[in-house]
Amino acid sequence: MWKTLLSTVLVIALTGAAAVRAGEDHDRARAALRAGEVVPLRDILAVVEQEFRGEMLEIELDEKRRRFVYEVKLLTPDGSIIELYYDARTKALLKTEGRGVEDARR
Asked: Do 88 and 66 touch, CB atoms closer than 8 A?
C-alpha cells in the first residue's frame, strides 16, 4: 500500500509543471494541517483501512466549497476501482462512487 502511495507521489514530483503545482499544493496542505483545518493523512489512511478492503491507488487533498476533502481511489478485491470522499477535518465519509463499494466495505 505504501509503495503505491509513494510511487504516485513520485510520478507527480517528476512531472515538470505538475511539480510546481504540487509544491504549491503541498504548502497549502501543510498550512491547513497546522491551522487544524485537516487531519493528518495517516488518520485518513487508518479510517479507510478500517472501513474498506482493497489497495489504495491514489489519495488527493482538494478544497471543495470552502472545505477540504480527501479523495481516495481504492482497488477493491474484485478488481473494481472506487472513489471515497472524506471530510478532511472530521474524517466523515461524505460520498462514494463506483461499482463494488458495498462489497468492499468491512
From this structure: no
> Domain range holding 25?
2-104
Report yes or no on whether pTM surpasses 0.85: no
For 74, the enclosing helix (H) or strand (E) is strand 67-75
- Spatial contact of 52 and 105, defined as CB atoms under 8 Å apart: yes
Strand 81-87: give its sheet, edge to edge.
55-64, 67-75, 81-87, 93-97
pLDDT tens figures, 74-84: 999 999 999 99
Coil, strand or helix at 27:
helix
How many Å apart are CA 106 and CA 104, to the nearest integer?
A: 6
Number of folded domains in the chain?
Answer: 1
CATH of the domain at 28: 3.10.450.40
Q: Phi, psi (5° rounding) for residue 9?
A: -65, -40
Instruction: Say which residue the cell 461499482 belongs to.
Output: 99
